[in-house]
Structure formats: C-alpha cells, structure tokens
TrEMBL record:
Ribonucleoprotein in keyword set: no
Species for this entry: Metallococcus carri
InterPro entries given in the database record: Rieske_2Fe-2S (IPR017941), Rieske_2Fe-2S_sf (IPR036922)
The keyword Translocase appears for this protein: no
Keywords: 2Fe-2S, Iron, Iron-sulfur, Metal-binding
Superkingdom of origin: Bacteria
Rieske domain segment(s): 5-101
One Pfam family of this chain: Rieske
GO molecular function annotation: 2 iron, 2 sulfur cluster binding; metal ion binding; monooxygenase activity; oxidoreductase activity, acting on paired donors, with incorporation or reduction of molecular oxygen
PANTHER family (UniProt xref): 3-PHENYLPROPIONATE_CINNAMIC ACID DIOXYGENASE FERREDOXIN SUBUNIT, FERREDOXIN-RELATED
Name this polypeptide is given: Non-heme iron oxygenase ferredoxin subunit
Amino acid sequence: MSDFVKVCTLDQLPENSPVVADFDGRRVAIVRTSDCGVRAIDDTCSHANVSLAEGEVDGCTIECWLHGSRFDLQTGEPTGLPATQPVAVHTVRIDGDDVFVRLAD
C-alpha cells in the first residue's frame, strides 16, 4: 500500500494511549507522545503474537505487556529483551488535525 490513509484525528489520539488501525488485516499501533510526536508501528510484538498497543508507552518506546520487550517507536528496533527482531515502522503525516499513515513495504 503506497497511499496515505486517514486513521484518526489528533483529538482521537490521547498522549501515550495507542490507537489501533486495521489495514486489511494488518494491525498498526498509532502512538502520540510528547517526546517523539505521532508514530506508527506494527501492532504485533516480534517476540510473541500479542498487541503492542496494550502495553505501556514511555518516551519514545512501547513495552509489550506479555514479556516486557520494548520497541523504539522511531526505528522499530527492540530496546529490551526478550525480543530481538524489529517491528515495521510506518510513515505518518499530519494534515491539520488529521493523522494519515502510509504502510512500509
């Protein structure tokens, strides 16, 4: 998918409370933080098949609630074990109050 898709508005995206958008079965966590703005990453932990959006956001990281792996919201890289594989990061564009996401290939 190469086009931007509107996923929500800024007022529907409370700080540090991820929102999940579904792109034809691919779940993406949209996260707004004061440290790194609005970011979009795949919602599934690379270590276990659980939703990252259910985890805690701290700065520019999100924690998987099941085993405690942390992922950088800007790069998708794991910053804490047990995860060793990154999650995909997607491009976010803000237009007025609208939040758009373009999926990474």
